[in-house]
Amino acid sequence: MSVVTIQIGQYGNQIGHEFFSTLAKELFCESENCNDNKNKDTENKTAQNIKLNQNRILKDSFEEDGLDIFFQNSAKNRNSYVARCVLIDTEAKVVDRVLSSSLSSISVSSDMLNKTWSYNKKFKISHKYGSGNNWAQGFYSFGAKVVDSLDELIRHQVEKCDRLGGFLSMMSLAGGTGSGLGSYLIRHLREYYDKSAIISQVIWPYRSGEIAVQSYNSILSLAHIYEAVDSIVAFSNDGMQKTCQLQLGLTKVSLSDINRLISMNLVHAFLPSFTDGLIGSYDCLGDYINHLTPHPDLKMTSLMTSPMVSDLIRPFTVYSWASTLKELGRLYNLQATPGNQFDPEWQLKYDGTLNNSKAFAHILINRGFECSLSNNHNTNSHNKYNSKRNNNNNKVAVKNEFLKLKSSYPIYQPNGFLFKHHQRPIFNQHMSSLLAYNDVNQMYIVDEALEKTCKLFENRTYVHQYERHGCAVDDFVDSILMVQQLLSNYARL
Ligand SMILES: Nc1nc2c(ncn2[C@@H]2O[C@H](COP(=O)(O)OP(=O)(O)OP(=O)(O)O)[C@@H](O)[C@H]2O)c(=O)[nH]1
Ligand SMILES: [Mg+2]
């Protein structure tokens, strides 16, 4: 099941590049963590060899599957991979930079096995000038202009997939191209690929106004993509900045730091993982959508990962499932509880306004040694290896922390908490956990953007700039109503 990624606008292209680089680093690398030497002394040589072979098979299929989802093997060189991706921006600068940096990312180190990745230059569309942070310019002026060429490129990428697992689009909500042209394209995609999965990864702007009309753009794009996509995976620049400070200990946070963190979350979420007791091929977007956003009214999701440690202290960090899951629970509760530290003003403003005590669904993914909850379901090769490796202490720790995490947050639907795992460690960490959640937490950002939009719109501030590109006052009214409905859907949880 392969996924075609579509990078739109500055954010879309920058995060897309970081995402593919993180994937490549992970999948090209002979992870030393895969070769578990820890129990050397207690096991005889034959057992060790069996284990090493099992690890190798497991690792190979993980890497093969992971690569096949997001990359195509180059016909000329089997060590070189081409991202299954279409790149679009209305100005050439960012796309060109991203294209050239992927071409120069040729690895020479032995642990990367001399594998390389790049974009295919033919799959880019760019123009001279951007959309000037104007959603209407991206949607109305550029949308119709570029949609046919885009269609063609996307169709070509789809034809290169043995089986299409869906589309992953990446864009900001606040700019003009990503939000405007991106919304146009996503609606168009839905018309042509009505049965395919579409996940849109978006970034909320910094709250303290980078762009005067950012709330307009955010509300217009959210309203225009909501129906067309299956899930929205959203991060906010403020939230990620705080996470960089809290988890990575950074004092000065750049957009690159934020992008690196977002990419790690996405890679954790979409690389292969298994559900106990389920046999079958892995469908990264489908599995996410089926569990987290099966309801058409509730599609807002986000991700968090633990442990997130800086490269500097990673080699000196001692990992355990108990501490990893405990940390995840702590971070989640920090974010979920009114009075969270991610945004202190939220407490003052929203305490009690929204019913922020409920989630619709969660997915927990554990990656690394002895990560499974059970050893009873030998239904696929992964579990078979895993069960042999499970040591009781770790299993108990995983189970205890898992149950705590599960019960710390009431979930609306029965069986709303899905547990997934894969024994292959990632990010050079023996163990790591990701929580994907569909809950009311993000609603404070939506609510705030809506409030700002309504304030501006009351006096028709800046509206003429949108009308110039064919955006009617009714577009604003419909979008505001749509987002109000979205808020009330979550408030009912
Ligand atoms: N995290 C992160 N945010 C970014 C990045 N680039 C832009 N943004 C955010 O995206 C918003 C602006 O959107 P852009 O993606 O720059 O706009 P665009 O889609 O290129 O549209 P135009 O430039 O108006 O044509 C702001 O909220 C920025 O903070 C990035 O690399 N990382
Ligand atoms: Mg731009």
Automatic annotation (TrEMBL):
Pfam families to which the protein is assigned, alphabetical: Tubulin
Molecular function GO labels: GTP binding; structural constituent of cytoskeleton
A GO-annotated cellular component: cytoplasm
Keywords assigned by UniProt, alphabetized: Cell projection, Cilium biogenesis/degradation, GTP-binding, Microtubule, Nucleotide-binding, Nucleus
Any GO BP: microtubule cytoskeleton organization
Chief location category: other
Localisation: Cell projection, Cilium; Cytoplasm, Cytoskeleton, Microtubule organizing center, Centrosome, Centriole; Nucleus
InterPro entries xref list: Delta_tubulin (IPR002967), Tub_FtsZ_C (IPR008280), Tubulin (IPR000217), Tubulin/FtsZ_GTPase_sf (IPR036525), Tubulin_CS (IPR017975), Tubulin_FtsZ_GTPase (IPR003008)
Domain Tubulin/FtsZ GTPase: 67-275
CDD domains cross-referenced by the UniProt entry: delta_zeta_tubulin-like
Segments crossing the lipid bilayer: none
Described purpose of this protein according to its UniProt entry: Acts as a positive regulator of hedgehog signaling and regulates ciliary function.
Family membership noted in the UniProt record: Belongs to the tubulin family.
Protein name: Tubulin delta chain
UniProt organism field: Helobdella robusta
